[in-house]
Amino acid sequence: MSAEVVGTGSESRFRSYLRLGKFDVYDYYLGILIVASAAPQEPATLLLFLLGEVAVIVAGVAFDDITGFRDGSDLVNYGPDDRLRKKLRKPLVAGTLTEAEALRFAWGAAVLGALLWAAAIATAPHSPMWTVVLLVVVLAAALQYSYGLKLSYRGFQEVFLVVLGATLVLAPHGLITGQFSGFVLVQAVLFGMGPLMFGVYSNTNDVDGDRAVGRPTVAALTSRRGNARFVGALSAGEFLLAALASLSGIAPWWFVLLMAPVAVLRAQQFHLGFAVCDIMRARKLGFTAHRTCVALLVLANVLVVLG
């Protein structure tokens, strides 16, 4: 049974659809800049892939909102008692869209995304089987993340966020070059860590709502101290990956030094979230850390090309 709508909204339907698709959160889409800096030869394929990933992610977040509305968790996390969350960001909770409208929007975006990715594969100079399989699996998982099989309700949320981000770098790079690169894999995982770090801070803030509906995020399954250790380990692991890549020769020796500013931002983010206990400001700082990471990864590829 659908949860009762809390409040009504005066926004236009178009603006509400933009909110449902979270078009203002573009950080997943930045991965295409990393690919373009490493393999810029096929702009048409890159554009088709980018448009496809926008549609797929829009579908996924819309389905997530539909499920959060149905199970009541968004009513808790974005309800009138939460001063840190704007209810209008959830059109179903705010009453600016109906559930039927949201479903049509989500399925339309899903179909469009699948068609655009198929077009990207068709126009690519290479189509190694691993890239095609990876895209099919990620497409299916994105649509089942909170809807259908509800993978995020079965303990796969944190893993999926990293895998999705990494795929958005690995797959288009494979389609353009026909190759698998260890250095690009490192960059892909570092890119995927950005959305994961948004997620773990959001989950820390939303722990009561997630526990109420049985959504098993790490924050919901552990104590506050246990969750803080988990987030701290992720923050440190991001830097260690860059360090190991430099030490092993997968990445240039200077790569770890180039990525040091991201480690500094992660330390500040952790302090803000778990020492100052301002989780939402810490989450916001995560966007700065992720965008800094993307800029540095693009710079790394430019430096490699320049020799």
From TrEMBL:
Q: What is its main location?
A: membrane
Membrane-crossing segments per the record: 46-63, 105-123, 129-147, 159-176, 182-201, 230-247, 288-306
User: Keywords for this entry?
Assistant: Membrane, Menaquinone biosynthesis, Transferase, Transmembrane, Transmembrane helix
Concerning InterPro entries, the annotation shows:
UbiA_prenyltransferase, UbiA_sf, UBIAD1
Named in its record, the pathway it takes part in is:
Quinol/quinone metabolism; menaquinone biosynthesis
Where found in the cell? Membrane
From what superkingdom does this record's organism come? Bacteria
Pfam families named among the record's database cross-references: UbiA (PF01040)
| Keyword rRNA-binding included in the entry's annotation | no
Its membrane topology is listed as:
Multi-pass membrane protein
Keyword Transferase appears in the UniProt entry:
yes
Q: What is the designated name of this protein?
A: UbiA family prenyltransferase
What organism is recorded for this protein?
Saccharopolyspora mangrovi
